[in-house]
Every structure is written in C-alpha cells, then in structure tokens.
Design a protein that fits this description.
The complex is a heterotrimer. Chain A is mostly helical. Chain A has helices at residues 10-32, 62-98, 100-115, 118-131, 142-152, 155-169, 172-180, 184-220, 231-240, 243-246, 249-277, 280-304. In chain B, β4 (69-74) and β5 (77-78) form a beta hairpin. The chains are: A mainly alpha, B alpha/beta, C alpha/beta. Chains in contact: A-B, A-C, B-C. Chain B binds chain C through residues 49-51, 188-190, 192-194, 196-197, 200, 215, 217-219, 221-223, 241-242, 245-246, 255-270, 273-274, 276-277, 280-281, 284, and chain C through 53-54, 212-214, 216-217, 220-221, 224-225, 228-229, 239-243, 245-247, 249, 265-266, 269, 279-288, 291-295, 298, 301-302, 304.
Amino acid sequence: MRELMPRWDGKLAIGVATVALITVFALVVPLLAQDPRSSANPALLPPGPGHWLGTTKLGNDVLAQLAVGTRGSLFVGVLGGLVSLVLALFFGILAGYIGGVVDEVLMLLTNINLVIPGLPLVMVIAAYVQNAPGLGSLARSSLMVALVLGVTGWAGSAVVLRAQARSLRTREYVAAARVAGEGTLRIICVEILPNLVPLIAAQLIYGVIFTVLGEAGLSYLGLGPTGSITLGTMLNDAQTGQAVGTGAWWWFVPPGTIIAALGAGLSLVNFALDEVVDPRLRQAPQAVRRQRRSRAAITREEASA
Amino acid sequence: MTPVDGVLSASHLVKTFRLRSGLRSTPVHAVKNVSFEVVRGRTVALVGESGSGKSTIARILAKLETPTSGQVLLDGVPTPTRGRALAEYRRRVQMVFQDPFASLNPFHSVAHHVERPVRIHHPELTSAQVAARVRDLLDRVQLSPADRFASRRPHELSGGQRQRVAIARALAPGAQYVVADEPVSMLDVSIRLGVLNLLADLQREQHLGVLYITHDLATARHFSDELLVMYRGDVVERGPADDVILRPQHPYTQALREAAADPERLGALRDEVRRSLRPLGQERSASA
Amino acid sequence: MIVERAAEPDLTVQPVLTVEDVSIRYEVDPPVDAVRGVSFTLHRGEILGLAGESGCGKTTLAYGITRLLKPPAVMTGGRVVLHGRAGRDAGGDQDDDEATTDVVALTGEELRRFRWDRVSIVFQGSMNSLNPVMTVRDQLHDVFTTHRPGMRRRVREQRCRELLELVGVDPARLASFPHQLSGGMRQRVMIAMALALDPQVMVMDEPTTALDVVVQRSIIREIMVLRERLGFAVIFITHDLPLLIEISDRIAVMRDGEVVELGTAEQIYRAPQADYTKQLLASFPSLSGTRGGFVRGREEVLGA
C-alpha cells in the first residue's frame, strides 16, 4: 500500500501547505470578515488598519471579497474537477477495458472533444446556457459554470486513463481473475481501479486546476456566475472598475496571487503523484546523488589510506 | 488402473487471428485443427516453442479465447461460453499462468487471491469456513504457517512463493483440471523442480487432470504421461512421453531434442567444431 | 568457500583478462553488495562459463568488467587487467598500442576504445537495441566510422558483408531494417557488430535465452566456430548450467556475489565440490536419464 502513497519531500510539502492554507483561508475567514457585499465603507481605500486589503470602488472590503471569492472558486474547481473525472473514468476505463467497437465509439467522442478549442467552446456553451429559457436561477449559478467546465474538460484525462486501463487489461492478473470467475464490473472496480488510484488522483487535481483557471477566465469575460463571488468575478469587477488605471493594485493583485498560488500548489502535489505513477521520475536523480556520495566516500577512504 | 471418471477434451480446435495493418488484414493461423484429451489423474505435456500455438490452446481451454472452430468438451459435453454454465466450467477447469509476477494483483493480499474463487464458487460457505479453506489451501501448497502468508502482498514474496499462491488459487474452486502454462519458466532454476513436484503431488492427491505446457523437453518428459509436440499450430508428434523424447520420429522433434542442452555431451560440440574446421586451421597456421 | 582447482594442462595458459578481487555495491538503502571479491583469469581463446541464478551478481559482474556500471552500482574495489596481445601483427589496425591495460583506470577516449575495440558485449536484449529506423548496413557501417574513421567506404562495405557471412546471415540482409529480421537474425547481427573490431574478449550475457532452442543452438554453434577461427575469449553468462557444461572450457559458479566454485567443465559436471553446484546440477532433470527420478527424489535433491 505504501508504494501507492507519494513520497514526502519538499515539493509535496510546499504544495500541500499552499493548498491547505488557501483552503483554510476560504473556509474560516468568511466567518470573521464583514459582509463582502456591504458597500458601507469608503471607496478605494488602500490597505490599512480596519481594511487590511483596502476596499473596492463600491466600498466592498477586499479581504472579505477575497475570502468568499476563494471559497467560490474552490467550490467551482472541485465540482468541475469531479464532473470531468467521472466523465473521464466512464469514457477512459470503459473504452480501455472493453475495447473493440465500444472503444472506437467512445474514443471518437473523446477525440472530437479534444480537438475542439477549449475556451471558445466553453464560452459558447456558457453563453447559450445563460440565455436558455427554463433554467431560471440555475442558468448563471456557479453550479452551472462548474458543470460546463467539467463537461468540456474531461477528454485529456480520458485518453490518459484509457491508455492505462488498456495496459492493465492485458495484465495476467486480470485474465486470472476472469478464470477465477469474477464478473466484468468487479474486475474493473476491484482488480483494475485500485491500481489506478494515483493516476486518478492526479487527473482529479488536473481537473481542479483546469476548472479554477477556466472559471477565472469565464468570469473575467463576464460569462461567470452572477449570483456569487469568485476570484474571477473579482478580477472582472476590478477590470470594469478601472483598478489598473486608478492604481488600485490591492483590488486585483490579491485574487491574481491566490489563483497563481492555488495552481502552483496543486501542480506541486501533482508532480509528487506523477512520481508514484512513474517511479523512474524519482529514482534517477536519487541514484545520481547516491553514486556521487559513495564516490566521495571511496575517495576519502583512499586519501586516508 | 485408476477408473476414468472424467475427461477434458479439445476437439478439432482452430484459432485464426487477424493481423490488421491499415485496411488490410492477414490471417495468422495460431492453431490448426488440434485435438487431444486430458484424463483426470493424468498429465499431458504440450511442448513447443514460442509461436507454436501452445499458449493459445491454454487460453482456449481456460475460456479466455473462443476458438475459430472446434470445441472444448467436458465429459463429452460441449462447453458453454457464458452464464451459469460457464461458472460451473470454471469451477472444474482452472489455469496457472506463466508469470507469477504478473498473474497476482499487486494491490491485493495473498488471502484475497485464494479467497475470491472460494467465495465465487461456494457462496454457501460461511466466512469462517472460507477462512479455514484458505488456510488449508495455503498449507497444501506449502505456504505455512498459512496465517503469516495470508496477509502478505505479492511483492513481499519470492517468485516460487508467488507461483504457489497461483496454484492455490487454481485449486480453490475445487478444480478437477488444471492448465499450467509454462508454470516454472519465469522461476529461478533451483526452485523449478520444487514447484513442479508440488504440482505432481497435488495431481496425485486430488486426482487432477493436468495439461502441462512447456518448451522444456526434459521436465515435459519427467512430469507427464503423454506428450504432444506442437510446431506452427500443428501437433506434429504425440505419444507416451518416453517414446517421444527417446525415440523421436518427426524431424522437428528430433531437432528440438538435438538442440536441448545435454551435459552428457560435454565438450562434444567443441570437438565437432574443431574437426570441421581443421583444414582451415591448418591453412592459418601455415600462413602464420 | 572457493574450491579452486588447477586448470587443465592442455589449455593455452596465456591470460587475456585478469579479474582480481572485484567488489561491486549497489548504493541503495540499505547498500547491496552484489559482487564480493571475485577473482578469475580468462585465458586466450577460452570459453569461461559464469553460472548462477538471478540476483547472484553475474550480470553486475559483466557490467563491471566492461565498465558499464550505472548508478547506483559502484565498483568498490579490485582490479581488472586486460593483457596485451603478444606477437600480434599490427599491420592494418591503428591500435597497435595493445599494451596491458588497467581497465578500472580507463577514462574518456581510452575507455571508449577499450569497449568494442578490445572487449565487446552481447546481452540478452541486445537484439532489441538495434535502431529501428536504420538499416543493418548503416548500423554496421557506424561501428567502423566511429572506431576506424580512416577506413574507406569500399573497405567498410566489404567488412560488413564478411561479418554477416561470418555469423550466418545472408549479406543481402544489409539493406533490411531490424523489424524485417527474426529475433535470431537480429541477435546474429548484434554478434557481428560485437565481432566487427576483432576484440580479444567477448562478454555474452544470456545471449540466446530469449530465443527458441533450435535457433539458440545454431547461434551457440556459430559462436564456437568463430571462437576457433578468430581466437577471441568468451565469458559466457547464463543460468543454464547444462548448456555451459556442454560448451565451456571452465566454469565459475556464482552465488550471492561470490564465486563458490571454479573448475573445468568436466570437474564441475563429474565431481562438483560445492554444495550449491550440486544443488544447481540437480535442478536440471536429465533428458535421457531415468524417468521420473526427480518427482520422488525431491528431498535429497533440494535438501529443504
């Protein structure tokens, strides 16, 4: 079991710490800070006591907005990541395990999804959904944005998972399970999936990063959720409020920083997971270090002899 | 003589794969019309080199492949390809795979591998009965104390121990026939005989019918009653093991026999090579 | 315990490679001593068999002798000496400086020249290391353009054809790509490449294990013919002791990084001294001996 866990090293520690800090910030600070929509404060105050990160043009507290926005972005990110993971698992594992015509059809759909340029598609779908009648308040909610991003972002992961499932399918232990009398579903769930856990986790994190960035992009373009605050909507507000022109850096730098830090932190965790999926990634540098060390030891011995 | 109370037979098996390259596909005749019988309590060896079709036959008997034509019969009855009847077939016919490093799931414990077939084929057993049966199976393949091995994972075992787990798994449903596809070729030489002897013991004790698939003439001879030699999808020679090995008739069997290392021919190859080169050697020493 | 015995008197006792007290360690956690104080002498034109099971250090030793060790493996001690070719006519070849060489001390250009020029290697998977997008001709020519830059193209082509003929491959195959050749043919091409520069020593690590027995047989016969004609010495590494007994002059049996017994093939077969040698010999049922003896005689055979 231990070989399925990432090794605890500097990269992973920094990644986990960054993501954890941001998550705690998003969960705890909204409870303590003032209402992010309250415009009772003076407009465009620079950071200072009372308003640690200043205020916006509308007099909203930036810290409060940042905390609630981070929570919103994380919500969209995790939800979108999960949606795309479920789709990737369905398309990838099924295509990879069953093969034949099923594989051809599922992969055709995956490839179509893969070659359509991502952001324009998301924009079209988001714009369409928002104007679709009968969706009501759901139309421009963060839930819908997460769904749209999830539905468009699974294809890459599906290809990766399919390749791995295909290779696992031909393993002798899968054949052995069939001979033992196991059913197809049980073979996929019990014999194949556990060996895919690190890869699946990596794909989930990749999906979360994709969704967080995608949501920021959509919101910045004005296609984001209207009812809720996210990091993307903050940037959009800062843009329309001409924060750059008026030098109100405290309005756009914090959300930008959090997006960058979240992306970086999740990527660092993913690197550690990649090393579990492909141990060569970490064995080669380790081996070089060891050899250098032992060479040094031998030279010392020779020198003292 | 032991009474003949069961027979697994392959009847006119043919397997043709289609090798696709681009739009064209060329047929590959892996198995061409092969028939034989495995009687309970006896071992049939299927000898051949890679590409001879012997592993395809193993996979057809284990119902991992369907033959292009021909049938697998159990006690003379054609065998099913799906459903409950297939489960019944699997209970009686099991397989031991070549590579014990690949045939055990690295994620699962030894107990899982042996327990699952017991549960699948004997759903009426209680958990305690299943556990007792698993212990008994592990003991029987000489993995004792069973409790110490049950919780281990494949990577904590040696190659020989893994193959013993694979044998226990094959016996777990209460199998009457075992298809052993090169069961020792991936193991270290000094433990091969141990595993083969274990199979031979179990076969005697449990009156198993064994199809032993190998490329090694020597073990095929020592561990089987009947021997079939396969070459490019065809059985080219068959008969009692000793007859086939000691008095091979077919040119291919003779070539196999000739090619197998035999320490009794110590130095013979070198002397033969020297003799055949002598004229050339003299030339060289003359010119030097 | 090393059971060392005098070599047969009729061997041409002119050493070509001396391995003295070589130790190799894998610097992993904890460190693994893969080869521990191994010594032997390889004589000119001799086939020395190196027998042992997986993990006994035989392949590591081969890598050590040819200076191919990669981290985390490190040679922690010992000497490997390649002796000069006495009385060799130097005409034609550029490297007439074939003096006695301390292999461990070689670096850079010298090391490159030592490998392939003087000691060549064929591994089990060698046949898969041919470049799939280059013809056999280009790859064989490459050996000469790299190691014999002065050689004329016509001479090179001539040598390549000779080499393929030597190993029993139709020279017309020079134009083929590796995937157009069978496994046996590719391994023969690798042997041709190893022979290209007329080395003194060939290290062969399970050169035929991946091949079918009939092909294996013809390649081994080819190696023995070439050895007689060209006079190189061979270190032949395999787990297949019966094969070694059949073809080797002397055999070293390795276990846990040490040579437990070294003797002529006949001594090893007829009167093995070390228990491990006996155990290894007993692991191979005889093709023509009494049938079924192994099924029942297990306890005494394995002693476990």
